[in-house]
Amino acid sequence: MKIKFIKITLFLAMFFTVFVSCSSNEDAEVETEPDVTDDAITELPAAFAAFNSDAVTVTLSDDGTEIYLETTGYPNHTSIYWETDHELYLDESDYVTKTTENTYIGGGTGEASSFTVDSTPNLNGATVDTELNTIGIAVSGAAIFNDQEGMGDLDQAAGSLDYNGAHKGPGVYHYHLEPRSISNDDDELVGILMDGIFLYGRKDYPSNDYPTDLDASGGHFGPTPYNEDGEYHYHIINEEYNAPLYGYDEAVVLFAGPFQGY
Questions:
Q1: Antiparallel, parallel or unpaired: β 219-224 and 113-118
Q2: What are phi and psi of 180, to 5 degrees?
């Protein structure tokens, strides 16, 4: 009888151990947090601190793989395209022929836009050509366009571009050329493009020289004012655009493409 009792006791102990072990494993599976992928980040890149917070809202997704950008589209600098009674209105009529006399920022078609980018741009995919309309958001809050206008290049539209290489007509106020209130032949951050890659001025950081190793998009890997460790980023390519109708001294296209981060 004693031996049988010991056997029963051992059996019950083993059963209880297995039951508890299974229960613990099930509980652990329920409490397991989602996997973090190599593409995820835990905080927004420091460069976003340079964006006009009155216009631009930047949000990191819960899983850290995407960044949502929204903008009112209203720049924080002067232009002839503000209404004449606006505090940022600048009379540039000696240099700029407006698209239409009643075209102004905030009038007609709204300036607001939004898009989502990968928090870690995919530099292993195929390059993608830029298209008409918004291809990025500048630190000012206004839209970035490529070097095309309508069905052709900027030649005919160049006369309507303000000091910042931008105009409105009839859609959003947008830049085609180097926006000199943001970056004027320097290494300043200009904005972010729709492939999630930041765009900087014509000069490199920290050398303050023109970079000599840019790819076809004007990009390369290296340190920036907001990432000393280095990252792939674009520069405005230091080439003057032939635009006889442009009212100011020098026309430098902001970004022609192709995108590298898709």
A1: unpaired
A2: -70, -15
Using one digit for the tens of pLDDT, what is the confidence trace for 216-243? 999 999 999 999 999 999 999 999 998 8
Whether residue 254 contacts residue 176, with contact meaning beta carbons closer than 8 Å, is answered with yes
The letter for the amino acid at 125 is: G
Distance spanning both ends of the chain, measured CA to CA: 76
33-65 pLDDT tens trace: 445 456 899 999 999 999 999 999 999 999 999
* pTM reported for the whole predicted model: 0.84
Residue 253: DSSP 8-state:
B
Which residue, among 199, 91, 187, has the nearest Cα to 145 in the 3D structure? 199
Query: How many whole angstroms separate alpha carbon 65 and alpha carbon 81?
Result: 37
Q: What is the DSSP letter of 255?
A: -
Q: Kindly state the DSSP code that residue 248 receives in the 8-state scheme.
A: S
Largest CA distance in the chain: 113
